[in-house]
Amino acid sequence: MTNEAFLKFKDSENKIIIPYLKKIFPSLKSAYCLYHMIEQLEDVYTYLVNSKDVFFIEVSRLNNSINHTDILSIKDYAIMKKGKQYHRYMKEIIALSNSEIIK
Questions:
Q1: How many domains does the chain have?
Q2: Are 80 and 70 within 8 A, CB to CB?
Q3: pLDDT by residue, tens only, the chain of 103 residues
Q4: Which domain of life is it from (predicted)?
Q5: How far apart are CA 69 and CA 57, in angstroms?
């Protein structure tokens, strides 16, 4: 990721995504982006929230409207992504989430 792309991502995260997450999760303490995919009409994100919920969100590239598609427990997400190897994966994403604190 280039520095310019990273700055654009952080700007979008700070202005659009984090305020939305705070509406959905009033006690938001941490949010860590696990996945970001740029599509033609929207950006697709997967966030680990408060070290326990995995939140799927789409942000329109046309008007910044937000559509959240699902919320899974961290265990269900890890099983979905890694099958039988989910215990190790779950520990890794929890460790990562602890480094991204929302103030």
A1: 1
A2: no
A3: 688 888 888 888 999 999 999 999 999 998 888 889 989 999 999 999 988 899 999 999 999 999 988 999 887 887 787 666 666 766 777 776 666 555 4
A4: Bacteria
A5: 6
